[in-house]
Amino acid sequence: MENSIDEGMTAQSQRRYSCWPQTRRLSAYLLAAWFVMTFGMLFFARELSNVYFFGWSLPLYMAAQGLSLFYVLILAVYSLGMRRIEKSGKGKA
């Protein structure tokens, strides 16, 4: 049964299927980083209020600018990671 499915797949769909585990892993890592940074800053804001960064308390700085920059960094890492995954997948099928 599984051979008949593989025979019916086009080369493009086989490439997509072979890259899927790497794509899921990259997405999971970046989602975990997003959750840890966002939840960590909000949950530990009171404890981190004594830490100063460029003259501002760390929770205030991260809420105002730091987390936004971190989210842009997540997008850049995702874009570069997907480009690498797609390039490595082109030679497989």
UniProtKB/TrEMBL annotation:
Keywords in alphabetical order: Membrane, Transmembrane, Transmembrane helix
Residues covered by the Sodium symporter small subunit domain: 20-87
UniProt cross-references to Pfam families, sorted A to Z: DUF4212
Domain of life, source organism: Bacteria
Transmembrane segment boundaries: 26-46, 58-80
Ribonucleoprotein found in the keyword field: no
Name under which the protein is recorded: Sodium symporter small subunit domain-containing protein
Organism classification: Bacteria, Pseudomonadati, Pseudomonadota, Betaproteobacteria, Burkholderiales
